[in-house]
Each structure stands twice: as C-alpha cells, then as structure tokens.
Amino acid sequence: MSLSDSEIDALLAKATSGSEELSDAAIVTKDRAAPKVKAYDFRRPDRFSKDQIRTLEMVHDGFARLLAGSLSTYLRTVVQIKSQGVKQTTYEEFIGALPNPTSINIFTLEPLKGTAILEINPQLIFALFDRILGGPGSAPTVIRELSDIEQSVVEKIIIRALDNLQLAWRNVVAFVPKLVAKESNPMFIQIAASNATVAIVSFEVKLKEASGQMTICLPYALLETVIYKLSAQQWLTVSQRTTSVEAEGKLRDRLKETSAPLKAVLGRSHITVAEFLTLKPGDIIPLDTSIDSPLEILVENQPKFYARPGLVSKRKAIQISSVIQEGEDDFHGRV
User: Which of these, 74, 227, 247, 280, has the minimum number of CB atoms within 10 Å of its CB?
Assistant: First the structure.
C-alpha cells in the first residue's frame, strides 16, 4: 500500500502540530515545577542558628584585634591576625582536618561545663617560638613535635591568647579560661562525640617572616547553657554600654597620668628697657608682692591655685592654700 503525496503532506503537518503542542506543554510543566529542595543531612544537624554564627564572628573579630595588639607588644614585632569566619561541622571532621603534628591546647571555660581546643599550625608555632627567643620569627623547613622546653616557652603565648579570649567574650558571658592539657597528635584528643556539632573559628596569623593558621573549636555542648545569649542585638547593646563605661574610665585614668607644667609666681615688676640694659650683679628689683602675700600657681600658664612657700626636707616647696575661682584677677592680700 502506498501513500499519495497529499496524504504524506497531511501526516507531516499533523506530526509538526503535535510536536509544537508537546513542546508548549513541556514549557508549562517546567514553569510549574516544584520549589527548590534544600538537602539536609540528619547526621549533621545545624545546631547554631545564623544569628548565633554572626555573633560568634563578631566576638572573635574582637578577639583577633585584642590578640594582635597583645602579641605585637610581647614579641616586639608587627603581628596581624584576621578572622576567617565561623562554620559548624562535626568534631570528627574537625579532627580529621588537622595536621600531625600540630599544637593542640585543651582548655576549660569555667563555669561552663566541658572543654574547647585552641590549635596552632606547626609552621606558625615554630615561628612564634623563634621570635620569643630573639630570632626573626621564621619557621623551619622540617616540622617536628615541640620538645618539653619548647612547649613551656610557647605556653606563654597560649595563656596570653586565652586571656584575650576572656576579654572578647565578656560582653556575652563571663568565664575564666584555664589550660588543662597539650597534645601534638589530633588522634589522641577526644573532647566530644565524633558526630557532635562544633563551631570552628579560623584565623590567619601573619608575622614578618612567616604566617600560619590558628583555630578555635567550641563544642555546642559547651555553649548550650548560654546559647541564648549569642544574639547579635544583645551583644551589640551590651558591648556599646560596656564600651561607654570603659571609655570613660580609661579617659579618667589617662588624665590622671598626664603631666602638666606647674609654675609658682613669686611676684611681678615693671622696668623700662633702659633700666633692663643697665642691670648688673647686686642690683635689686622690687616686686609688687609683700612677704606675706600668697603665691600664684600657674598650670599650663593658667592661674589655678594660691600657695605659700616653704621648705620640706631642706627642699623648696609650696603649700596650696586655696583654689583660684574663675574670673579672679587680683590675688594680692589673699590669705
């Protein structure tokens, strides 16, 4: 059986029409596709909210600034520390990512229950050790474990870091950090269950001759009792209030330590230029004050006090008798 030309043309036209209808239907189905589904791993639940992560980032940004200033003073060189953010993961993944050997320092945050980890990359820890001993702060080419003597020297850096961590956290929760153990092999450390959620705070530390990574591991179980305080709004409110009070106190303390020149004016006199040019040893210039008149005391060339002259342990001294009130010009005859 053969088809005529007109029948073939009709079949082709119908096939083309059906294809277009099918394409239109596919487009409509695509437009009405289900909303995107976000994958969720029930073995790794997110325990920290986004707001809590942001608060942790702000707290440890402050910690980075505090520690950079502290280490710069202690090591007598410029130390730059930059926070690289906070992420939550499992304890097993954190331990598996650490190099071996490395400097692992376990510490408590009393009264919080549990322990945390401060890990310093071996390249960085040897550079810090070299700088402490007076070197340029360079790291060796071959990395090894720290000796007992080296660990005791580097421990000063760890204690300084924990002290600054306490300062950075004081607006959120008050705790007292205490170093309880040191280890070089990550496989020997178990401060939380393998699948426990931990917050990892990473830092990049730069010295003049070297750089390296520093990491803080905070288990969720450690912060669980104070997790409600990790609110960015609460942290900023407390931080601003504390900063205002502290700034006022620091300003007052600095003013107390500020030195100011003080002068005691014995008296004044007026003479002509001709009299001044003819002065010679033994000449007497009469002053406009009597022996019983109080002296005027100038602070930064401004009259502030009245005083009387005297001696203390055979040294010349003055005794403040009264304060010059604003607007007083004449001090003569004041007792």
Answer: 280
d(CA 320, CA 300): 17
pLDDT tens readout for residues 153-202: 888 899 999 999 999 998 888 899 999 999 989 998 999 998 999 999 99
Structure-token pair, residue 232: 């960015």
HEC readout, the chain:
CCCCHHHHHHHHHHHHHHHHHHHHHHHHHHHCCCCCCCCCCCCCCCCCCHHHHHHHHHHHHHHHHHHHHHHHHHHCCCCEEEEEEEEEEEHHHHHHCCCCCCEEEEEEEECCCCEEEEEECHHHHHHHHHHHCCCCCCCCCCCCCCCHHHHHHHHHHHHHHHHHHHHHHCCCCCCEEEEEEEECCHHHCCCCCCCCEEEEEEEEEECCCCEEEEEEEEEHHHHHHHHHHCCHHHHHHHHHHHHHHHHHHHHHHHHHHCCCCEEEECCCCCCCHHHHHCCCCCCCCCCCCCCCCCEEEEECCEEEEEEEEEEECCEEEEEEEEECCCCCCCCCCCC
Tokens 């986004």 belong to which residue? 50
Radius of gyration of the chain (CA): 38
Per-residue pLDDT reduced to its tens digit, 1-25? 566 767 767 766 666 655 445 455 5
CA 47 to each of CA 50, 108, 142: distance values in angstroms, whole numbers, following the listed order: 10, 21, 39
Please report the domains of the chain, with CATH numbers, ordered by start residue: 50-252 (3.40.1550.10), 262-323 (2.30.330.10)
Block residue for tokens 């598996």: 96
Strand order in the sheet with 295-299: 262-265, 295-299, 302-312, 315-323
